[in-house]
Specification:
Strand content: 25-35%
Distance between the termini: 36 Å
CATH class of the largest domain: Alpha Beta
Largest sheet: 5 strands, mixed
Helix content: 10-25%
CATH superfamily of the largest domain: Outer membrane lipoprotein wza domain like
Radius of gyration: 27 Å
């Protein structure tokens, strides 16, 4: 059941990324992408094949181009860089109406890291502005069956680090589309493992199980096959960590909620 739900969530992520927010990260970079250090660009001038140049933008945001030397393009869009190079060629008396084309061949300056329980952890380029969290997750292969439904985003900005936790199902079930935030270069996304609980004692299949949303004790025991013939059904206890981290045991009802890492124990009936 949980694997099926996760597959459906990943399918929604893919569709959401592909159709709601526009082109995918890998296929259609936006013309407003800001050039930066590490990006590799290919520059061509119409009817001047000898001026074709492929260059990596330096840490200073500059590249070298024939005739005009160093050009600072860091922070400019490809279109703005084309205009600047054409203007420099004109001002230098080399070409009056240069038709310059600049294409980014390697995106290195704007990247986001995706870690944890996803299909393809790693660093991914942000080839267009406005890229959303769900788009990045879809590009990273979606969330694994062992992954949680929440994503932690860590952002370092202005010397400060902020942390945000995004509940993915709420984006679709509760219409909280504003939580599908725009990611930025340098962001890190982390998907933790799904929460678990444990069932012991007089149940058919003791063991570890994935905790589902709003699960109660009755549902949790059903995952373990239910009671055995020797179970004392009104004597179910749970060991749970308190605020100090200490394990505390208490008796629970079948309709009580289950929490992550709960250890549920069904005692044996003496009669």
């Amino acid at each position: 059941m949980f694997s099926l739900a996760r597959s459906l969530l990943n399918a929604v992520l893919f569709v959401w990324a592909a159709f709601l927010h526009g082109p995918s990260l890998a296929n259609s970079p936006s013309s407003d992408y800001p050039l930066g250090a590490g990006d590799v660009v290919r520059i061509q001038v119409f009817q001047s094949p000898d001026m074709t140049t492929e260059a990596r933008i330096s840490e200073a945001g500059e590249l070298s181009f024939p005739l005009i030397g160093a050009v600072r393009v860091g922070g400019l869009t490809p279109g703005q860089a084309e205009t600047l190079i054409a203007s420099r060629l004109k001002d230098g008396g080399f070409m009056q109406r240069a038709q310059v084309t600049l294409n980014v061949t390697q995106y290195r300056s704007q990247q986001v890291s995706v870690l944890g329980s996803v299909g393809r952890p790693g660093r991914f380029p942000l080839e267009q502005r406005g890229t959303r969290l769900t788009e990045v997750l879809a590009t990273a292969g979606g969330i694994l069956p062992s992954g949680a439904d929440t994503v932690i985003l860590v952002r370092r900005e202005g010397g400060k680090t902020s942390r945000m936790e995004i509940d993915l199902p709420s984006l679709y079930l509760n219409g909280q589309t504003d939580r599908d935030i725009e990611v930025k270069g340098g962001d890190s996304l982390y998907v933790h493992r799904a929460p678990y609980y444990y069932v012991f004692g007089q149940v058919q299949r003791p063991g570890q199980f994935t905790l589902e949303r709003e699960m109660n004790v009755r549902q949790a025991l059903a995952k373990g096959g239910g009671f055995t013939m020797r179970a004392k059904e009104n004597a179910v206890v749970v060991q749970r960590r308190d605020a100090t981290g200490k394990m505390v045991e208490s008796t629970v009802g079948l309709d009580d909620p289950v929490r992550a890492d709960d250890q549920i124990y069904v005692r044996e009936s003496l009669f």
